[in-house]
Amino acid sequence: MGAPLSPSAVRDAIDSSDPVAILDVRQSLDYVNGNVMESTWVPRGDLERRLPALVPNRSTPIVLCDERGERAALDARWIESLGYDRVDYLDGGIAAWRDAGLDLVEAVDGVHATAFGYESKEFGERVEVSRDLPKMDPNEVAERRAAVTVVDVRNPPEYDRYGTIPGSINVEGVDLALYADELRDDEPLVVHCAGRTRSIIGAATLQALGIEDVYELENGTMGWELAGRELEAGPGRPDSVDVDADRYRRLRSSVEELLQGSNASYLSPTELAASRAEADDGRTTYLFDVRTEPEFETGHVPGARSVAGGQLIQTAGQHIAVRDAAVVLVSETHVRSSITAYWLAEMGYPNVHVLRGGTSAWEDAGSGLVEGPETTEPIGSDRVAAAVTTVSPDDLADLLDADRATVLDVDARDSFTDGHVPGAAWAPRSEIESAIAAEQEDGGTLADGGTLVLACESGEVSALAAAQLEHCRDSIERRGDEARQGVSSVSADVTVLVLEGGVAAWRDSGRDVETGDGRAVIEPREAVRKPYAQGTRAMKRYLEWEENLVE
């Protein structure tokens, strides 16, 4: 059974060589107001969905963190009931960690983005300082625009949504090494992202591979805007770029030489298959395919997760929750995977490997590839059918017309504002018990029992939430009040139902949804993850903060 761990015990677990995953399950604004650097942020509503990927070996110890330790205790017991061997929690939560005087990563001057991805950003600044990368400022790029090739290395959704430097083409992350020479036609190449880190890594990669006349755009699209210039929709990613065969062979030789100088190593297809077949208790292996998502879907090694190389470097801590784990990287041969492995090893990840020959070698060895998108079944899905009672959109409409039900939407806040059942209230999954208690106290349909209907966009999060509520009620019946852990439970006279198929099914039944903020039972505490979404002052302060990470 999960146990409360003191802040010093959690600190010791992090500092030891034993495997452990530290997961912070709070709302994002709580997270940016103070988090343990080595923790991985997993909003409570995503926990069951993300756990199989974050902690694939169920014998790996997990420590859950919340604000004060109360809710995390319930979640620890629930996750253990779903098959994990040991799930503990930070006693007293982050509040106790702070009181113990231990270090926290906190947003600087209210700029929320400074509290996300600290380690990757600090690493990027160290790379820039140590490698003396050439730069161009926005004004110089604007003046020379017709004579330089500008490449945006952000992921396609960011590139499409937020705008880019006029004419900047999109080549994501480590893909740039493949196509740099073909794209620029002997012109200087200027690399950028929204700020600094990804452009630093992009330019440093090309420099390390001997590709010359490469510059990083100082401070990216934010620097461009702060210089008084406008962003615009870009031309996108080139449809097809043919890489000269001789150039590709030279590039592959260069990345192999680069990797030889690091702590990363190659695995053959046979070695990878053998390592995955071994039942090594306590050992976690992550398998990442670092190509683009469309390439991944054309065929990937079974069990691989799709995370483009540049994004993996930028957000490593959000994908690698067990720090001593083996990390195996795959691409079509091993060019992009070797580049990604090199940077992860430079960041300090101790067990990084590359599938030599990539998916091509895997197939040549007689092993099959899997087509289609990544699919991961949330833990607990098998419990839902037995524990949860659903209600159809038609029957829910009848209940609402008769004023006989309360609908509580437990999806992410932006999903709720995009569309919810008319009259539904919102509460975060992390505080669902408190929200239900508040609804009962307000004297509505739940005042004397009644029917509670949980909803979300797909029906998945709400079904898992209902299953956990029933698990908690069963625990209290068996063990009494000590099972509550200080958190209100749902009284036995409240009937808990789940909207079958979620808000999507409600919409598909021809019914209208409400949009906008609606009614929140629990105050939303959502961080603004992009500094440019917080305005000019935040952009300036964010860039200053990044530059000062390395003195």
UniProtKB/TrEMBL annotation:
One of its GO terms (molecular function) is thiosulfate-cyanide sulfurtransferase activity. InterPro entries: Rhodanese-like_dom (IPR001763), Rhodanese-like_dom_sf (IPR036873). Pfam families: Rhodanese (PF00581). Residues 16-106, 144-233, 281-371, 401-515 form the Rhodanese domain. This is Rhodanese domain-containing protein. It comes from Halorubrum aidingense JCM 13560.
